[in-house]
Design brief:
Blueprint lengths: L1 H21 L13 E6 L5 E4 L28 E5 L6 H4 L5 E8 H6 L2 H7 L3 E8 H6 L3 E4 L1
Parallel strand pairs: 1-6
Antiparallel strand pairs: 1-3, 2-4, 4-5
Amino acid sequence: MKNSLTILSICLLGLLITNSFTCRKDEYCKSGNHIAIKIINQSARDIRAHFYWNYPDTSIGAYNPLGATESGIIKPGNSFDRSVGPTSCWESYLKNGTKEWIYFFDNDSLKVIPWDTIRVTGRGLLERRLISLEYLQENNFIVTYP
């Protein structure tokens, strides 16, 4: 009986923790808002899509999207869902005319060109696309490369 209560307590605690992380806390996010956008790769190459959250600056940020894992690769014909953060939605983040850049990088280039060279020359950067709430609404919250 004591073991059953312990297991039940652990399960209830896990449920409370899970619900606290999934709760939408942004007052501007209503039912039907988009917590993620879908990024689709319709090219023939492996790409990585990255936000530097630096609009209107167009420089490539310090963080190399290659990172330490292969998890950020979007293979040809595949997609990736990108949230704006754990407690917000795109409608709230982009309200009042806010805009952001999505940087599309060639994954093979990221592997062979030093990051400092990419940042200075733009080699390996396939496209820098400006998104706004209007852009996402017009495209059903889907961003397709190219």
